[in-house]
Design goal:
The protein has 315 residues and is an alpha/beta fold. It contains 14 helices and eight strands. The protein has an eight-stranded parallel β-barrel with strand order 1-2-3-4-5-6-7-8, surrounded by four helices. The longest helix has 19 residues. It is globular and about 55 Å long. It binds flavin mononucleotide.
């Protein structure tokens, strides 16, 4: 069966530099979701969100902006903004698990308030022609919370509901709850995308066997840890290309160069690259040692030395 792969957004990671470098070197992703836009009291889009969405900064074929809010006016404001940049779809984040967000009844903290969800969707659909898609967890405290939102969601022409098969309270701990996910599939007319813990081709195959009706798969952390993942899932192979490490090294340098040219001060660049290496290091058999080497580098020169040492046995 044909299927599509979606890059699930990670704030501060899957920004335009990452998306462009991934698409340039590896491919395999059909649609990229941008990390969420969040307004801060004022109806104003922060410059870093703007940069991330400007068409001239993005080379990927399909990019979908995302918003995190519980307010109909804010939602509409962001709709108008993304439409002004030429986007016709806005993804709504009802998945973020962090207490700072959920306590304010946003992200996964909004799932148990179907009436508020209705108000936002009503305004968006009455006052704009934006295509809305959703990204949700299955609840905050309980994986059945999402079921009470379905009668509301079913009233609107939602493009799809991406479901991260966890609840908010779990944060990223514990496993995905596949039984509750299956229950969601049986309870809505909308198209569901699967999300959660696809970190290898084998994981993907297992999920595909379990959920044969799913045609769209969202991959987040697994794609940062192994940027070959989408390409290899598409090629249905577990065999890495011969030039695996050479490509990985080039990809890493493209990211580094992008951030070095944009961030002021070496410490910002090092912090950014270290956060990437926390994921990249998983691709290496001695991941702990690899990450330690990067963390120890306190200057740009030391960072490059560490990177070269890591790759020296492979390329
Ligand atoms: C550091 C971090 C940042 C994230 N930022 C976002 C975000 O901006 N928007 C969103 O919808 N999900 C965000 N997520 C959730 C991921 O998109 C994804 O749903 C989650 O990691 C589960 O998928 P995975 O197991 O494939 O990573 C974030 C996750 C992490 C770990």
């Amino acid at each position: 069966m044909s299927f599509k792969l979606i890059s699930s957004p990670l704030q501060s990671f899957t920004e335009f530099r990452f998306r462009n470098a991934l698409d340039n070197h590896f491919g395999g992703i059909d649609t990229y979701y941008a990390p969420y836009i969040r307004l801060n009291v004022k109806m104003e889009i922060k410059a870093n969100y703007e940069r991330d969405l400007f068409p001239e900064n993005n080379i990927v074929q399909e990019l979908v902006p995302q918003v995190m809010t519980n307010d109909p006016d804010e939602f509409l404001f962001v709709v108008k903004y993304v439409q002004s940049l030429g986007y016709n779809e806005l993804n709504w984040n009802l998945g973020c698990p962090y207490p700072m967000v959920t306590k304010r009844c946003m992200g996964s903290g909004l799932i148990n308030d179907p009436q508020r969800i209705d108000e936002v969707l009503k305004k968006a659909h009455e006052e704009s022609d934006i295509v809305v898609s959703m990204k949700m967890r299955m609840g905050y405290e309980n994986p059945t919370e999402i079921l009470d939102t379905f009668p509301i969601l079913d009233k609107y022409p939602i493009k799809n509901i991406g479901i991260h098969a966890r609840i908010g309270q779990q944060l990223y701990k514990g496993g995905v709850d596949l039984e509750s996910f299956q229950n969601c599939l049986d309870k809505t007319k909308h198209t569901i995308y699967y999300n959660g813990d696809i970190c290898s081709v084998a994981d993907f195959r297992r999920m595909q066997d379990l959920f044969p009706s799913i045609e769209n798969w969202m991959i987040g952390r697994g794609l940062i840890a192994d940027p070959f993942l989408a390409q290899m899932i598409k090629a249905d192979t577990e065999v890495f290309p011969d030039n695996r490490w050479k490509l990985f090294r080039k990809f890493q340098y493209e990211l580094f160069d992008g951030y070095a040219g944009a961030l002021s001060g070496k410490s910002h660049v090092l912090t950014k690259m270290t956060s990437f290496w926390e994921y990249f290091s998983v691709s290496f058999s001695d991941s702990h040692k690899v990450f330690k080497k990067i963390k120890k580098a306190k200057s740009i020169e030391a960072y490059h030395e560490a990177v070269e040492e890591i790759f020296k046995d492979f390329v």
